[in-house]
Specification:
Layout lengths: L17 H13 L2 E2 L9 H15 L13 H13 L3 E5 L2 H16 L3 E3 L5 H5 L3 H4 L4 E3 L10 H5 L7 E5 L12 H13 L3 E6 L6 H4 L3 H5 L4 E5 L10 E5 L1 H13 L8 H14 L3 H21 L6 E3 L7 E6 L3 H15 L1 E2 L4 E2 L9 E6 L9 H13 L6
Parallel strand pairs: 1-11, 3-4, 3-5, 5-6, 6-7
Antiparallel strand pairs: 2-8, 7-8, 9-10, 10-13, 12-13
Helix pairs in contact: 1-14, 2-12, 3-12, 4-11, 13-15
């Protein structure tokens, strides 16, 4: 581990200070070796050029641009419905809006405004209590363990609920998934209670590998499914809500009421179509290689005598997983930035303090994408050694 004096070069390099944020982004964008490239790694000009190049490959650019959801936006909706095997799909500017609309529709249809979901699910962690504040919904938690609920927990939950929402994978628990058989059993248990099932499938695209099933078979378990276009497939923004034709038609009405009927959305639609073409065929390879990366990290931490660490889950269920270390988030992020600046290698990006506020513990999310397929296990171990050299020694 590096001497504590190394920290003086990063004085003020903490939190969300704008200068520090730009330094982070610059270091990671200019790095030659990364496990995955993210939109922030490209300048505005590069993103515009990419969008222009992609447009001609996914749609007829001689046709008029979209107006209030027709043209290329409608093409995207049809593509998603086809991929998921549903009757219809509707484009939404955000996944937060898509899911609020879906859950509101189900509350009206079931006559029950209670939604059962995990306390680590996105609406509970990242939406500022929007389900209750905006949509008048009430949430209950069948389990607080860092995994999806079991069939027994759903069946024996003491309170009634109209909708069971399952986030696949459960991001804040480490992108964890049940087995296919466990998922089938949980859905069946909800059906026994006359509850409908909604999948938060922001990252559903990469779940097929672990489940050993195609997207239509996975989506068929639920009454509605939300998917994201910027998570996993590299789009600009946007989401889709898929399900029966009647549900999607009702959702379009509520989308307008929530302010989601935008005048033009062709940049997001083009980027989404291009991302589906480019990334969907490669996701199984990313998922497989994530296991190699995670195993090499665990071996490297052990060889370095780091002490306590956690790769969660091990092995990963998708192409994303968490790494936990007993250090502050700021000092680990600073070490990542220094490694990128000094060696051109990015193993980890930003580190975070858990919401529980646990002192001296931080985690980061690791994503394996196209760029990561070039990394061997030895590359990972060497990069980890370089990272740990830049982490201040304790004591």
């Amino acid at each position: 581990m590096a001497d504590t004096n190394a920290q003086v070069t990063d004085e003020g390099a903490a939190g969300d200070d704008e200068a520090w944020r730009l330094r982070r982004l610059t270091a990671w964008r200019q790095a030659g070796r990364v496990l995955s490239r993210i939109p922030q790694d490209r300048s505005l000009g590069e993103q515009l050029a990419s969008l222009t190049a992609d447009a001609a490959t996914v749609t007829d650019i001689a046709l008029p641009a979209d107006i209030y959801g027709d043209a290329v936006v409608a093409e995207l909706e049809q593509r998603v419905a086809g991929l998921l095997g549903t009757e219809a799909a509707a484009f939404f500017p955000t996944g937060t809006m898509a899911q609020q609309v879906a859950l509101r529709c189900w509350a009206a249809r079931t006559g029950d405004s209670t939604v059962a979901l995990h306390p680590l699910a996105h609406p509970e962690m990242h939406e500022g209590g929007a389900l209750g504040a905006v949509s008048g919904l009430r949430t209950v938690h069948p389990t607080s363990d860092p995994r999806l609920p079991t069939a027994e927990e759903i069946r024996d939950f003491p309170e009634p609920f109209g909708t069971l929402m399952l986030e696949l994978p459960l991001r804040d628990a480490g992108f964890v998934l049940p087995t296919w058989e466990e998922l089938e059993a949980v859905v069946a248990a909800a059906r026994e209670r006359d509850a409908v099932v909604h999948f938060d499938g922001a990252r559903l695209w990469e779940c097929a590998t672990r489940f050993g099933r195609g997207l239509p078979e996975i989506a068929a378990l639920a009454d509605s499914v939300y998917v994201s276009f910027y998570k996993s497939v590299g789009g600009i923004s946007g989401a889709a809500l898929a399900g029966s034709a009647s549900l999607v038609e009702e959702a379009r009405v509520w989308r307008h009421r929530y302010g989601g009927r935008l005048f033009q959305q062709f940049p997001a639609a083009v980027a989404a179509l291009a991302g589906l073409d480019r990334e969907l065929p490669n996701l199984p390879a990313y998922v497989a290689h994530a296991k190699t990366v995670a195993a090499a990290l665990a071996e490297g931490f052990t060889q370095a005598g780091t002490g306590w660490f956690r790769v969660q889950p091990e092995p990963p269920h998708t192409h994303q997983f968490q790494v936990w270390l007993p250090y502050g988030a700021d000092e680990l992020t600073a070490a990542s930035v220094r490694q990128a600046e000094e060696t051109g290698v990015v193993l980890f990006r930003r580190w975070f303090t858990p919401d529980t506020g646990a002192p001296g513990v931080a985690f980061t999310e690791v994503t394996v994408g196209q760029a990561g397929l070039e990394w061997t296990a030895d590359d990972v171990r060497k990069a980890l050694a370089g990272f740990l050299e830049r982490v201040p020694r304790k004591g």
